[in-house]
Amino acid sequence: MAIFSDESCTQAVGAVTSIPSGINQIISKDFSIDKAAVYYLRFKWTSVVPETSASITMKTVAYNGKAVILSNVMQPIYTGTGAKKLYHKIVVKKNKYVVIKGNEIRESGNSLQTSDLYFQLCNAKKIPLYNGHLSNLNLYMENFALKKGTYYVAVSSSQRYQLLAQQFNWKNKGGKNKKKAVLIKKGKTVQGMSLMSDKIGKTKWYKIRLKKKSKLRISIVAACTGVTQNMKVTVVPAKKGHRLINNSFIFGSTGKKISSSKKLSKGTYYIKISKVTSSVSCCYAIKYMK
Asked: Dihedral, CA atoms, 124, 130, 131, 136, nearest 10 degrees?
C-alpha cells in the first residue's frame, strides 16, 4: 500500500506499507502531507493474487500538524515529531461557559483506543493557569468559566489527539457583597459565575426571603473545573438570633441540594458563593425551591 501525488502512481508520498496476510488485519500508517491536493492510494499484491476475494475497509483522517484555533468541531492533531508542545488558541468574546473536550488516540493491538490527554490552560501570554487532565473520570471534558479574552490550550504529546472548545452563554448575576445581594424569588433560578480570573477571596451574594416560618430549600446545579469539590456555599441569616446548623457546604459539578431540617424563622437569608481553590472556576445556577 502506498500513497501518490499523481494519478499514474509514479510520485510516491512517504514509504510503502505492507498489509500482513490473514483475516481482520488492521494497520495504521501516517503520511506527512505538505499541501492540500488530491492524492491517490494504491493497493498492490506482492505475490500471486489469491483465488478468494479480499476486502479492504479504509478510514482516512487528516491530522493538523500545527497549532489550531479551537472551535466546537473536534480537530485531529498529530505532530509526528515527538512530544512537541503546541498552543491551540481560544478566543472568548465575552464571559462564557467554556467546555474543553478531547483525548489521545493510541494503537492497541488491532484497534485504536481512546486514552487520557494532559493539557494546560494558558492566558494570552501563554502563562499556565490550570493543569488539566481529560480522562474517563470527567468524561474527557473540563469545564471553565472564562472572562473575555484570548486563551491557549497547550498540549505536549507524541500521540495522535483531538480537541474542541465549546462556548455557551451564561449569566453572571450576583452581588459583590451582602448589601448588594441579588434576590432569588421562590420557584425561580439565578445563574452566576466564579471566573478563572477571580481571586479566592471574591464572593457572590444572593438572598432569599421567608415570608413566614418555613423550611428553606435550595438547589444548585453546577459545571465546575476539575473532578473535586472546589466551591463553597454558605447560608447566612440576616438576624444574629437566627442560627443554622451546618450552614456551609462544599460542592462541585455534581451540584448541591440544601434543605433545613426544621422550619426557620421568618426573615431574609443570604447565600454566599466562594472558591475553595484559586485555580478553578464554576458556572452555577441557584434555585429557590417551592
From this structure: -110
At 96, the pLDDT band (50, 70, 90 cuts) reads: very high
Q: Is 113 exposed, middle or buried (0-12, 13-18, 19+ CB in 10 A)?
A: exposed
pLDDT at 229 over 90: yes
User: Nearest CA to 83 among 155, 182, 147, 10?
Assistant: 155
Of 150, 210, 160, 202, the residue nearest 183 (C-alpha)? 210
The three cell numbers locating residue 288: 429557590
CB atoms within 10 A of CB 133: 14
- Bridge partners (DSSP) of residue 192 are 284
Whether residue 24 is predicted with pLDDT greater than 70 in this model: the reply is: no
The neighbour count for residue 245, using CB atoms within 10 Å, is: 7
Whole-number Å distance between alpha carbons of 58 and 201: 55
Contact 247, 234 (CB under 8 A): yes
CA 223 – CA 252 distance, rounded (Å): 7
Q: Tell me the three cell numbers of residue 227.
A: 473532578
CA–CA distance, 95 with 148 (Å, rounded to integer)? 5
Q: Which residues pair with 96 in a beta bridge?
A: 146
Q: How far is CA 270 from CA 49, 116, 161, 209, 273, in A?
A: 80, 41, 46, 9, 10
Q: How far apart are CA 267 and CA 208, in angstroms?
A: 8
* Burial of residue 142 (number of CB atoms within 10 Å: 0-12, 13-18, 19+): buried
Please give the C-alpha separations between residue 191 and each of 98, 153, 201, 278, in angstroms, as whole numbers. 15, 26, 20, 20
26/113 Cα distance (integer angstroms): 13
Q: Please name which of 59, 57, 15, 62 lies closest in space to residue 37, comparing C-alpha atoms.
A: 62
